[in-house]
Specification:
This protein has helices spanning about 20-30, 65-70, 100-110, 115-130, 145-160, 175-190, 205-210, 225-245, 245-260, and strands spanning about 5-15, 35-50, 50-55, 80-85, 85-90, 165-170, 195-200, 210-215, 220-225. The protein has about 270 residues and is an alpha/beta fold. The chain has a domain at about 5-85 and about 165-260: Rossmann fold (3-Layer(aba) Sandwich), CATH 3.40.50. The strands form two sheets. A six-stranded mixed beta sheet has the order 5-6-7-3-8-9, sandwiched between helices. Strands 2-1-4 form a three-stranded antiparallel beta sheet, covered by helices on one side. Helix 3 (about 100-110) packs across helix 4 and helix 4 packs across helix 5 (about 145-160). The structure holds adenosine-5'-triphosphate (ATP). Adenosine-5'-triphosphate binds near residues 14, 37 and 61.
Length: about 270
């Protein structure tokens, strides 16, 4: 089976500062201030061409960081990432320029992807129609609701015909009818053999749509396998997690982080 994504030992390190002064001082005197924080460490998974993979995990587990690294928006600190094909990421307001109008955003995004003026004019009406933003398309994006931004982002991304489509929570905002239309579009993509990564807190959507699951926990892969293998375990965990009082969650988190400390990071 041809691979669309191979991720090996992906690490993303951020530096956390106590305020802007520390950040500035760290710039002037390198490595003088700030604390290392690993948003991802040792992340590994593979996607075959045509796979639909769900990223799950509680808040802050690293789903968006991993999505952004795969989309080339955020650089990784270390690791190896092989991507076969063009990637499009749809996240709430991802990559939209707030001061530009919806139409300008469409044109800019397509220009950046290498489409010429003629091709842009040809695709624009389909994008506007799909987004259902006809009345607002010449208004600045900063006046849009998060649902409207998500619709514009979705309409652009599916119309540029990517090989790998990442949808990060973009269908959790906005109306049900648009989400249904988007799911139909995604089913079309699936039939065309495109690879998709779907990030959502909705187990129902995961079951409906995904074939494989990457379960992230504090920046590490807790489990990777088929939906039938991984989702029941994740659901059982979530049930316990929701019942867990805060101090217990802290202990759980610490155990996971200690485990990571004992796992060498290359
Ligand atoms: N630019 C940044 N600087 C410092 N820390 C960051 C940065 N971006 C993300 N993080 C941290 O990295 C961790 C992973 O964040 P990420 O947004 O990837 O998680 P997530 O699983 O997508 O969470 P959610 O479900 O809440 O969207 C979090 O602890 C977050 O605070």
């Amino acid at each position: 089976m041809e691979k669309a994504i191979i991720a090996k030992d992906i690490v993303k390190k951020y530096k956390l500062y106590n305020g802007p002064k520390e950040r500035l001082l760290d710039l002037i005197i390198p490595r003088s201030y700030g604390e290392d924080f690993y948003a991802l460490s040792g992340v590994e998974f593979e996607a075959d061409k045509g796979d639909i993979i769900g990223f799950v995990g509680v808040n802050g587990s690293g789903k968006s960081t991993l999505s952004n690294i795969i989309a080339g928006i955020v650089p990784m600190t270390s690791g190896e990432l092989i991507i076969n094909g063009q990637v499009a990421l749809i996240a709430i307001s991802s990559g939209l320029k707030e001061d530009l109008t919806g139409r300008d955003n469409i044109e800019l995004k397509l220009l950046m992807l290498g489409f010429n003026k003629h091709e842009i004019k040809e695709r624009e009406p389909d994008i506007i129609e799909f987004s259902e933003l006809e009345k607002f398309i010449d208004q600045p994006v900063k006046s849009y609701s998060s649902g409207m931004k998500s619709r514009l982002g979705f309409a652009i991304s599916v119309n540029v015909d990517p090989d790998i489509l990442i949808i990060d929570e973009a269908l959790s905002v906005g109306d049900k009818a648009f989400a249904e239309k988007s799911f139909n579009k995604m089913r079309e993509f699936k039939e065309m053999g495109k690879t998709m990564i779907f990030v959502s807190h909705s187990i129902k959507q995961m079951k409906k749509f995904c074939e494989k699951i990457v379960w992230l926990e504090y920046g590490m892969v807790k489990d990777f396998g088929t939906v039938d293998e991984v989702l029941p375990k994740y659901e059982a965990f979530l049930k316990e997690w929701k019942k867990m009082p805060k101090p217990e969650r802290k202990v759980y988190r610490q155990k996971a982080l200690d485990h990571r400390k004992n796992t060498p990071i290359v």
